[in-house]
Hints:
Order of helices and strands: EEEEEEEEHEEEEHHEHEHHH
Largest sheet: 8 strands, antiparallel, barrel
Helix content: 25-40%
CATH class of the largest domain: Alpha Beta
Radius of gyration: 26 Å
Number of strands: 14
Number of domains: 3
CATH topology of the largest domain: Rossmann fold
Distance between the termini: 72 Å
Structural class: alpha+beta
Strand content: 25-35%
Low-confidence stretches: none
Amino acid sequence: MAELLIARNPDPDSTLPFLLRVPTAGGLVFRTSGTWPRTKALFCYPVGGEEWPTEPDIVERVPLVSCSRNGAAIDVIADRRTERRSQIVHTRARGREMVFWQSPNTRKQARPQVRTPTARAAGTDGELEIVVDSHERYAYRFATQQVRLTKQALSCGDYGVVLGGRLVAAVERKSLSDLVTSLTNSTLRHAVAELATLPRAAVVVEERYSQVFASTYVRPAIVADQIAELAVRYPSVPIVFTETRGLAEEWTYRFLAAASSWARDEAVIGARIPGAESVLDGAGPAPEPTTAQVRAWARGAGLEVPDRGRLRPGVWEAYRAAH
């Protein structure tokens, strides 16, 4: 019967105290931080088979029912009553390939047993128009809400709402790995500085704050200090940890809906009070339209435009003059 072997790492300088030997593809060996992914996913560092000791100090032998590769994952089923299933997943984060060993329990912790509401956000009448930055990959769809999505280039943030042709609120989305990377290379500092120029803005993180302290490649204290520094330097741009992607999407919808309602009320009040500061005074520039949007407008306006390719500068000038 095949076995999954866990031995002590003989290298005293390694931060990963165990070696994991998986009986597939001739025997794969990983350095790892634990003997089984019981409460959290374990980071695994792949090494050559020659790193497995000739006389290993075996900590645990796990007899297996099966061990098979399915795409970028290795499914492991142990021959025992409890803690039977686990998966070794090859993924990409922080610009490089990484391997994690996870179990159904660790995946459940990342998916809390809650159902997000489908009730429309307070203050919204009909569909809420959300502008999605054209560079945003795998964007939120807001499928359970009454939302109309428009894809355009935003001056800052990944999702925003527009009033009077001006960007009045935006949300920057981050996974935990994106957050750590952008903190260490200072790109998040510049992004938050730009968000702070808007009337309302926020950063939403698709993870729990506690996972900041599970970081492997960057000292957790450094990440926590930089998050705190941004919160102090830019108090108008909160950094919100929402635990999962689904909850981050829900929070983004509610935030933008509230910001849109607030901006409309402020604009009305500002118009009624002489000398009052308008909410648009601090708004960002209008999002740039896509070529397809300008082409559709031009045809509706009776202008001749090609079916594909670039548009003449005069068409863009006419669009901007009309809007």
